[in-house]
Design goal:
The protein has about 150 residues and is of the alpha+beta class. It contains 5 helices and 3 strands. The chain is globular. It starts with 8 loop residues before the first helix and ends in a 21-residue tail after the last helix.
Length: about 150
Amino acid sequence: MSVQKYFTEENKLQITNAIRVAETNTSGEIRVHIEKFCKGNALDRATYIFEKLEMHKTKLRNGVLFYVAFEDRKFAILGDVGINMKVSDNFWEEITNDVVFKFKEKKYADGIADGVIKAGEQLKEHFPYQSDDVNELSDEISFDEKL
């Protein structure tokens, strides 16, 4: 059974709307990938998914992936090299803590959506929205567990 069963259409819309709102503040590109299981380290899996979703192909290398392995209760945020060259090592730590806190309250969509909005606010400082900005990556959640 697919992990999508844990997210209503309203939940999915809440998350995709958060991505759209966040991206109005920044030229950064944000994606959310949710799957059931993660064998091994969540950050390693996020790195693999990041590449499979071709997030490394943005013009400014400023893509961000929110990765969730729902059944295994694993979560990671991964920023591309363009972001990581400009921010501190613990740049995603506060957002990660906030998302995990919401997850513990079983508020999964709220946690992801809030984290995405906060990521957009933080990215705005380093990658402000440009008038000629193009949405380079899909705002839809990816659930493909076969990646």
